[in-house]
Amino acid sequence: MKTYRYTGWLAFVAGFFLVASLSRAGEAYHTFTDMEGRSIKGLLMGFDADRQVATIQRDDDRICWVALAVFSEADQQYVRKQGPGKNFMCLVKISTSLSSLGKSERNFGNRYKAEHVKCYDYAIILENRSCSRFDAVDIEYCIFYRQGEYARRRMVFAEGVQCGRLKIDPMMPRSEHYLKTETVLICDENNRSSGLFGSDGGARGAIHGIWLRIATTLPSVERITREFCSPRNIGNSKAWTTTMVLAGLNK
């Protein structure tokens, strides 16, 4: 997953609007040449086809907006070809929000008290800030959670994964999309009920986070994918999967 860090605003310099300083690693610089044969090294960060303006991160980490006509013919073709992919990677904002939907209406018998069982889901918000249209945008997600149960007088915790798929077709330029995941049931309070042969009941569970993979096919037929994690470090402790792992109340 690529992470961008904006550090401040800069001034208008040498005919370019320098707008921010931004850290990015792991990508080879392209040599851009103008119509007069002058060259700079940088990364293409996006292309506004309506305004015919490219966003370039120079090799000194400064960001500039450059009119397409400034570039050589070869680099104009490069910008037009690479622009949609860069827009998808850099100019589609991704955010998520965990929501509690309140108490579950299901009957769990003696094992769980209904007032302690809550439904959770995530809202996934995608904001296309570019002028590019993206068709068949596929969103896969994994929600990682923990749920505990009392079994034979001892607590047993299990890790669960709620998997799902969503789709946007098409994602229009400068549009916002609000999607919801499937729900996950969580017992939010230790809840033992004593009986003749011991104690049984539910146990406190927790939502660990969500991992997204968002893909689209570009006009060049190239398939590109972005990843998004909330919290950011969840990929360090969890493994991506497309197989549902049901735990506790969600079985």
Plain-language structure description:
Strands 1, 2, 3, 4, 5, 6 and 7 form a 7-stranded antiparallel β-sheet that branches. Strands 10, 11, 14, 15 and 16 form a 5-stranded antiparallel β-sheet that branches. Strands 8, 9, 12 and 13 form a 4-stranded antiparallel β-sheet that branches. This protein has 2 domains: 5-71, SH3 type barrels, CATH 2.30.30; 94-250. By secondary structure, the protein is mainly beta. Strand 10 (137-151) and strand 11 (154-168) form a beta hairpin. It contains 2 helices and 16 strands.
Question: Which key terms come to mind for this protein?
Answer:
251 residues; single chain; five-stranded antiparallel beta sheet; seven-stranded antiparallel beta sheet; SH3 type barrels; 16 strands; 2 helices; mainly beta; 2 domains
Count of extended strands: 16
As for the number of domains, it is 2
* Broad shape: elongated
Largest sheet: 7 strands, antiparallel
Structural class: mainly beta
Determine the strand fraction and express it as a percent band. over 45%
The oligomerization state is single chain
Q: So how many helices?
A: 2
Q: State the distance separating the first and last CA atoms.
A: 32 Å
The helix content is under 10%
Q: Topology as H/E string?
A: EEEEEEEHEEEEEEEEEH
Q: What integer value in Å does the Rg equal?
A: 24 Å
Spans of at least 5 consecutive residues whose pLDDT stays below 50 are: 1-25, 191-202
Mean pLDDT: 81
